[in-house]
Amino acid sequence: MDYSFNLYNSLAPNGVCLALKKIMPENCKPPVILCIGSDLSVGDSLGPVTGTKLKQMLAGLNCYVYGTLAKPITAHEVKYMNDFLRQTHPDSPIIAIDAAVGLAGDIGLIKISDKALKPGSGANKKLAKVGDVSVMGIIAEQSVFNYSLFSATRLNVIYRMSEIIAEGIFSYILDLIQNAGVKQAYADVFTSFL
User: Fold this and answer.
1) In this structure, what is the dihedral angle of CA atoms 19, 113, 162, 154, given to the nearest 10 degrees?
2) Which of 90, 89, 47 is nearest to 70 (CA)?
3) 22: which residues sit within 8 A by CB, 6+ positions away?
4) Tell me: the pLDDT tens digits for 87-136?
5) Are the C-beta atoms of 127 and 78 separated by less than 8 Å?
6) Phi/psi of residue 120, each to 5°?
7) Measured between alpha carbons, how far is 136 from 152 in angstroms, rounded to an integer?
8) Which of 31, 157, 161, 177 sits most deeply, having the most CB atoms within 10 A of its CB?
9) Which of 35, 8, 12, 42 is nearest to 153 (CA)?
10) Which ranges of 37-131 would DSSP assign to H, the alpha helix?
11) Is 98:130 a contact under the CB 8 Å cutoff?
């Protein structure tokens, strides 16, 4: 199932949170967040900017975010990350975030899907898929000159998309942790009556 939200929609962060609640398995562990991209190109920086925001928002919540402005994870490194994430976090679902290209009318959309993400496909790279859930920000129109379009992307578009994605994922994880705490409290109360 796919969900799309426009970056100019004031309810987009809530939509991201609700889409994740529908896509992610119930009672799962908090997800691992993999933010793919580079800080060398504005258009390709959606992942690292989002990762930096999420790392700050999730500080102290025992959640893992890989790929920030300080330590970006590029599409080429994904093949190593797949093995690392499955060995390090075997029971945690993985949310992969990346910038993408699409149709002219799709620019500004944030797309969330229950499928793995294929990084680098906008630049015609053949790389391994990653993640259980993908979050893609459509930042440019697909063409044979995608790399130059990534460089021509406005920083405001990237920044606003990263805010929406980070807010939505943060709300989802916070709800997940709080619900797990409530369920544990009910289980403890029930056990004390036995």
Assistant:
1) -130
2) 47
3) 1, 3
4) 999 999 999 999 998 888 898 999 999 999 988 776 667 778 899 999 99
5) yes
6) 80, -5
7) 18
8) 161
9) 42
10) 46-57, 78-88
11) no
How distant, in Å, are the alpha carbons of 25, 51, 62, 83 from that of 89?
16, 18, 12, 10
How many residues in the chain? 194
pLDDT digits (tens, 9 = 90+) for 25-65: 887 889 999 999 999 888 899 999 999 999 999 998 989 99
CA 23, 35, 91, 164 dihedral sign is negative
Strand-pair category, 65-66 with 32-35: parallel
7, two tokens: 């970056």
- 181: tokens are 């705490």
Matching residue, tokens 């093949």 = 79
**Could you give the strand order of the β-sheet that contains 2-6, starting from the edge strand earlier in sequence?**
2-6, 109-113, 133-141, 94-102, 32-35, 65-66
Helix (H, G, I), strand (E, B) or coil at 134: strand
What residue type is assigned to position 10 of the chain?
A: S
51, β-bridge pairs: none
Tell me 169's DSSP state. H
